[in-house]
Amino acid sequence: MNIHEYQAKELLAAQGIPVPMGEVATTPEQAEAIARKLGGAVVVKAQVHAGGRGKAGGVKLASTPEEAREKAQAILGLQIKGLTVEKVLIAPAEDIASEAYVGIIMDRASKAPVWMVSAAGGIDIEEVAHTNPEKITKLPVDTRYGFLPHQAYFLATKLYSDVKQQRAAAKILEQLYRAFVEAGASLAEINPLITTPDGAVKAIDAKFNIDDNELFRRPAIEGLRDTSSEEPAEVTAREANLTFIKLDGDVGCVVNGAGLAMATMDLVKYYGGEPANFLDIGGSSNPEKVVNALKIITSDENVKAILFNIFGGITRTDDVANGIVTATKQIDIQVPIVIRLTGTNEEIAVKILADAGFSAMTDMDEAVKKAVALAKGEAQ
Ligand code: GDP
Ligand code: MN
User: From ligand 2's centre to the CA of 80, what distance in Å?
Assistant: First the structure.
């Protein structure tokens, strides 16, 4: 789950990290009122689940409340990486002497949280990672011991030469690590971590990705979810208890079990197709899940064919067959459906489908090949 910058900043401030706090506005008038209340120059910042807002025109300085209103007017409604800006953060503007990057990610390869810090932070950090990787210092954390003070100090020395700033940064790194762990995050970063001309160290942008599997025991973090910023199909799927990830292809896949779903996507690719989604309808299926799955898949205009691949173990294939029949009565499905099912109650399932005018296959290769061909308009 992604959260907004203003929410991420609240997580940082809760740990004691110096963050210039602002307020969120949804209209230019609100932006002006907040700027007036804050007094002085402000920065108006698009709140969308995307980085690179600065380069996309989503971060603008304003020296008066009137100017804040104008900047908010310009940013609200803007499209950034396909997302419409519905909220802006109005925060006190800072004078910047330097911009550093500090971030921690859960790294699969290291099987540990790994720090990345660089004195060359700011909006070009991706480019620095590409062209000057030696400017980024990495450090894994051994979670048996946690993030130790000497490690924090070591990283801080990579950012600043001034001892006071090193101490300030070391403290911020330890606080950021706590925020990362307590939020169940897979990524927590501050970019930029700035120094001001008078020497203070502050966080003026923050980003967190939360591990979805950590949410059930963190209702306060789950409460930060903004469904208006999420893929609508993924929101519907989550509410229907389906595991769904939207992809860019044209073969819609309905599969039971995550492993079979992965294998199905591999096979779609193997036969020259592109999956439109990952969808796991789960181990025990009921017709309603199938109905919801088909509604979600058919709402994707890219889908040119739908492939069911069901292995009946605990899942009863006759349940799935009933779901397909019910769903096709409820929804006007415009694309061909290929059904492969095998296992528990397959004879009953085949009969249910045959009575409704569908033919089911039992061979996975054949079914995938057919779905790929149908999606390309090459088969009947
Ligand atoms: P991002 O582009 O989405 O990462 O948004 P950021 O919040 O990181 O802002 C991008 C850039 O705008 C920063 O790297 C700064 O250079 C600049 N910026 C952001 N806030 C301020 C501010 O308060 N004062 C000044 N002078 N520049 C700012
Ligand atoms: Mn940033």
Answer: 14
Determine if ligand 1 sits within 6 Å of the CB of residue 93: yes
Ligand nearest to the CA of 56: 1
Looking at the structure of the chain, the number of domains it has is: 3
| 252 part of a folded domain | yes
Same domain (yes/no): 125, 156: yes
Q: How confident is the model at residue 243, as a pLDDT?
A: 87
Do 237 and 192 lie in one domain? The reply is no
Average pLDDT, integer, range 160-186: 98
**Ligand (nearest to CA of 99):** 1
Residue 129 included in any domain: yes
User: Which of 22-36, 115-129, 245-259, 316-330 has the lowest average pLDDT?
Assistant: 316-330
Same domain, 186 and 150: yes
Of 142, 140, 133, residue with least CA distance to 155: 140
Q: What is the DSSP string of 98-128?
A: EEEEEEEEEETTTTEEEEEEESS-STTHHHH
Of the candidates 380, 368, 303, the one whose C-alpha atom is nearest the C-alpha of residue 335 is 303
Domain that holds residue 69: 22-92
CA 113, CA 187: separation in Å to the nearest integer?
A: 9
Cα 59 off chain centre by: 21
What is the value of pTM for the model shown?
0.83
Note whether 173 and 239 are same-domain residues. no
The verdict on residue 325 lying in a domain is yes
| Residue 302 included in any domain | yes
Q: Are residues 359 and 276 in the same domain?
A: yes
Q: What is the mean pLDDT of the chain?
A: 94
Candidate from 2, 118, 204, 207 with most ligand 1 atoms within 8 A of CB, to mutate: 204
Asked if residue 358 and residue 285 are part of one domain, the reply reads yes
Residue to probe by mutation, ligand 1, list 187, 189, 193, 205, most atoms within 8 Å of CB: 205
Ligand 1 pocket member 83 (CB < 6 A): no
Distance (Å) from CA 99 to ligand 1 centroid: 9
Same domain, 177 and 199: yes
Question: Is the Cβ atom of 189 under 6 angstroms away from ligand 1?
Answer: no
Q: Is the CB of 192 under 6 A from ligand 1?
A: yes
- pLDDT score at 283: 66
Instruction: List, in order, residues 6 or more apart from 200 with CB less than 8 Å away.
Output: 18, 168
What's the pLDDT band for 289 if we cut at 50, 70, 90?
Answer: confident
